[in-house]
Amino acid sequence: MTGLSVAHVEAIDVEVGQHITWHVFGVTLNMDTILGTVVAGLIIIGLGLLLRMRVSARNPSGIQLMWETVTDEVEKQVEGTLGLKTAPFVVPLAIALFMFILIANWLALIPTGHHPEYMPPPASDVNLTYALALLVIVWMHVTGVRKQGFKAYYHHLFQPTWVMFPINLVEEIAKPLTLSLRLFGNIFAGVIMVSLIALFPAYLLWAPEIIWKLFDMFIGAIQAFIFALLTVIYFSSVKPEEEGAH
After folding, report:
1. CA-CA distance, 134 to 93, in Å (whole number)?
2. What is the 8-class DSSP label of residue 109?
3. Residue-number span of the structural domain to which 184 is assigned
4. Do 216 and 121 contact (CB within 8 A), yes or no?
5. Peptide bond before residue 116 is cis, with ω within 30 degrees of 0
6. Residue 174 neighbours by CB under 8 Å, 6+ apart
7. Using CA atoms, how far apart are residues 133 and 56, in angstroms rounded to an integer?
8. Range 236-242 contact pairs with CB under 8 angstroms and sequence separation of 24 or more
9. Exposure of 133 by Cβ count < 10 A (0-12 exposed, 13-18 middle, 19+ buried)?
10. Is 135 helix (H, G, I), strand (E, B) or coil?
11. Among 128, 115, 118, CA closest to 15
């Protein structure tokens, strides 16, 4: 066959989801996820210590105003959902989760020049998001049983009738899955986009990379807020029905 040309299409292999791993006593550990988690935790502790040293009622610093703003918003959500007196620990829990996820997501802005990156967003590893979700859900169930008693707390599984028990049970089991996979999916999608943008020619790379980094920061903040808000909403189930009478 003459006059015909054969087009050779080269498949582009975009590698995402790879991790720098350690092998300890037969257990594989994702070192980059652990490193990012530790760094985010140390940053939060450092900000807390800095706030403690510079706290002032007359001349508040920028970091103090930031913490007070976040705390005020979370307290409003908790008060409107379940009451501060019902579960006062929900405020520091939600704030800690919000700040940790926010800072952990923004760690991707620090280039390391290594492939794979030394500190990708820890939430792009489903192991971390599962751990965060289990922390929230297990804590919620423990608090609910302590506040209302086992029978009263799990009574909602049989509402509006006992026939709904299987569906309500599936919904309860799905809570940690949806909470974790929502965060994981959005952050992991950002990692995929960065990998695709890296395929651009060098003279075009800077523009989409800057635009995407800014958008990625916005998505990271939104996902941190949603996770903290869902934590408050989930804990609303521990609110005693007769709280107004106490």
Report:
1. 14
2. G
3. 21-245
4. no
5. yes
6. none
7. 35
8. 236/81, 236/82, 237/140, 237/144, 237/153, 237/156, 238/82, 238/86, 238/87, 238/140, 238/143, 238/144, 238/147, 238/148, 238/153, 239/81, 239/82, 239/83, 239/86, 239/87, 239/147, 240/86, 240/147, 240/148
9. buried
10. helix
11. 115
Q: How many domains does the chain have?
A: 1
Rounded distance, CA 28 to CA 37, Å? Answer: 17
CA end-to-end distance (rounded Å), the chain: 90
pLDDT at 27: 79
Q: What is the pLDDT of residue 206?
A: 57
pLDDT, tens digit, for every residue of 74-101? 888 787 777 666 677 888 898 889 989 9
Whether 119 and 36 have beta carbons less than 8 Å apart is answered as yes
Question: Is residue 13 in some structural domain?
Answer: no
Helix (H/G/I), strand (E/B), else coil: 161: coil
Examine residue 74 and state whether it is found in any structural domain, yes or no. yes
What does the pLDDT read at residue 205? 60
Give every residue of the chain whose pLDDT is below 50, as ranges: 1-14, 242-246
* Residue 3 is assigned to a structural domain of this protein: no
**Does any domain span residue 58?**
yes
